[in-house]
Amino acid sequence: MDKQRYLVKQRQRRQFRVRKPIRGSAQRPRLTVHRSHKNVEAQIIDDVAGKTLVSAGTLDADLRTQVKYGGNKAAAQAVGKALAAKALAAGIKEVCFDRGHNKYHGRVAALADAAREAGLSF
Question: Which residues are within 8 A (CB) of 119 and not within 5 positions of it... i.e. 6 or more apart?
């Protein structure tokens, strides 16, 4: 098996292991984070209905003007604040955090901390 396939399998195993106990409901939806090299996105998802309730990312028009580069901790903090503001406007106060295959470190932790400071609880 070549190295790239091995790394993808490892990432998938990590993601399944982290996501298995987390289920988002209407009362407590799931906040999931996706990060690439250049951007950070986050969504709040109701898994029962299978719908995205709120989303924010560095590619959004309002955040694109605020953030110079989307792949750093400052951009992740801006996404966390924007997501929390949208969630509170939609009536969502509690979420369960899904880090996916990422470590709770760096940009993922910065996004989560900014969302907590802006009023979300998880």
Answer: 84, 88, 93
- Tell me the chain's radius of gyration from C-alpha atoms: 15
Domain spans, the chain = 3-117
CATH number attached to the domain at 3-117: 3.30.420.100
Other beta carbons within 10 angstroms of residue 20's beta carbon come to: 8
pTM equals 0.86
Which DSSP symbol is given to 59? T
Please tell me what DSSP assigns to residue 22.
Answer: -
pLDDT 10s digits, 1-55: 699 999 999 989 988 888 888 877 778 999 999 999 999 999 999 988 999 999 9
- Measured from the Cβ of residue 62, the count of other Cβ atoms closer than 10 Å reads 10
